[in-house]
Amino acid sequence: MLKNPGTLVIGGARSGKSRFAEHLIVSSGLPRTYIATSTPFDDEMTARIAKHRRERGRWWATIEEPLDIASVIFRETGPEKAVLVDCLTLWLNNLIFYEKDIAAETLRLCELVKDLRGPCVFVSNEVGLGIVPENRLSRSFRDAQGRLNQDIGEACGKVVFVAAGQPMLLKPRQEPEITL
Amino acid sequence: MLKNPGTLVIGGARSGKSRFAEHLIVSSGLPRTYIATSTPFDDEMTARIAKHRRERGRWWATIEEPLDIASVIFRETGPEKAVLVDCLTLWLNNLIFYEKDIAAETLRLCELVKDLRGPCVFVSNEVGLGIVPENRLSRSFRDAQGRLNQDIGEACGKVVFVAAGQPMLLKPRQEPEITL
Amino acid sequence: MLKNPGTLVIGGARSGKSRFAEHLIVSSGLPRTYIATSTPFDDEMTARIAKHRRERGRWWATIEEPLDIASVIFRETGPEKAVLVDCLTLWLNNLIFYEKDIAAETLRLCELVKDLRGPCVFVSNEVGLGIVPENRLSRSFRDAQGRLNQDIGEACGKVVFVAAGQPMLLKPRQEPEITL
């Protein structure tokens, strides 16, 4: 087991990031737990959740937790099992919707991640690579998501970027250190 | 020649992805064919197409095909020539506009790509790395584009991501396999 | 010192690109100069600038220059100091706002970058990886930003892409050349 068995998988919408995260877990051969942060706000979301669950199959224990994922992760992780949290973007969305303290919740999660007792994979969206959104709420969500990804990325031992279904390992760095 | 001589080049708008794809083809020294999927919907598009064609120069055979690119690729590819398809994003746009069956067309294209008889480079946009679009049509386009990129990325032997004109090889992976 | 001591650091909003660029400069141990291109258009921007300055601390000489960064860079760079330009996206924004000739200004900057006398790090946003913006001005900004990143990326000896706070070296390429 790694010193820090946390992995952050980031990517765009429909980039294959969830599929790759599931592949990581399945390849480990460990019993697997899926922590779903999604709350079906509308029909589009409900359909998407049901589709994801069907695709995942039934070899997963599924726990739905929209807000207090730190407690669930603390309880569920261990050296002999693999946990998937899908996804931090919906978690952030829920924090905002229920007017939670994002900074405090992020700090709590990161402290936990630095001290994980077993493998845990976090899926999150990268949303800051488009044009500046016109409305303030979108800009503020984009900033919060970016900060969250930086913080979790720093806490996790591994960070993977996925595009067109293909993973790229950002951390730990495979290349020599970058200098001026 | 590779087992699968298909290459997917993805990137953002004005990232240099088309230029890099052309560089790949030109560097091969093979006779070259350009399959243009663009349909000039408006003046902005017409000007852009004309500009691209001027920049490309005349050492290319150009074929315009907005929809049935599979047939053209099947006919045009071969071991002694190099084919460029620019781009899948406009092709997808055309499929939607003409109300074609996207899943069926994608499947047909991917089956062909898995069995290419000669080098073929596909240019496509990554559009899922911004904030969630407000209108449903944009969200649905984003999802369709992401799925298409994943499917073609899986079918192709190579996937390259381009940013600021710089290519990054995502597939085949140069690093050891990523595990938990 | 490298043949070309220019470095372009690109990434999304809140990706950690500025922090990484500052880390590059600080790690060099050289005296440091910060060229700020930001013009506070509104309260949101004013607060962000003040926050950035507080976070940077006072070991930086700060020069504010919204438009003529080429002259400032020419004057400030040298083998015994490190210069940070943060960021090209706001510079581009200023060029547009004051109706300057973007192509001419970009060319002037790139000529200078090709012949830098000391290390200079440029921070810039990648904004082309979302869905096509609905308004023409945003599309045109996106195109201008993409072209600028390509041009500066070509002029600089190094290009780094940052996501979730993690850097990835795009240039110089660490892998064998990509071919068909």
Automatic annotation (TrEMBL), chains A, B, C:
The keyword Transferase applies. SUPFAM superfamilies: P-loop containing nucleoside triphosphate hydrolases (SSF52540). Gene3D superfamilies: P-loop containing nucleotide triphosphate hydrolases (3.40.50.300). It catalyses: adenosylcob(III)inamide + GTP = adenosylcob(III)inamide phosphate + GDP + H(+); adenosylcob(III)inamide phosphate + GTP + H(+) = adenosylcob(III)inamide-GDP + diphosphate; adenosylcob(III)inamide + ATP = adenosylcob(III)inamide phosphate + ADP + H(+). GO terms for molecular function: adenosylcobinamide kinase activity; ATP binding; cobinamide phosphate guanylyltransferase activity; GTP binding. It comes from Roseibium hamelinense. It comes from the Bacteria. This is Bifunctional adenosylcobalamin biosynthesis protein. Belongs to the CobU/CobP family. InterPro entries: CobU/CobP, P-loop_NTPase. The active site is at 52 (gmp-histidine intermediate). Keywords: ATP-binding, Cobalamin biosynthesis, GTP-binding, Kinase, Nucleotide-binding, Nucleotidyltransferase, Transferase. Pathway: Cofactor biosynthesis; adenosylcobalamin biosynthesis; adenosylcobalamin from cob(II)yrinate a,c-diamide: step 6/7; Cofactor biosynthesis; adenosylcobalamin biosynthesis; adenosylcobalamin from cob(II)yrinate a,c-diamide: step 5/7. It is an enzyme of class 2 (transferase). Catalyzes ATP-dependent phosphorylation of adenosylcobinamide and addition of GMP to adenosylcobinamide phosphate. CDD domains: CobU (cd00544). GO terms for biological process: cobalamin biosynthetic process. It holds the Pfam family CobU. GTP binds at residues 11-18, 36-38, 53-56, 64, 86.
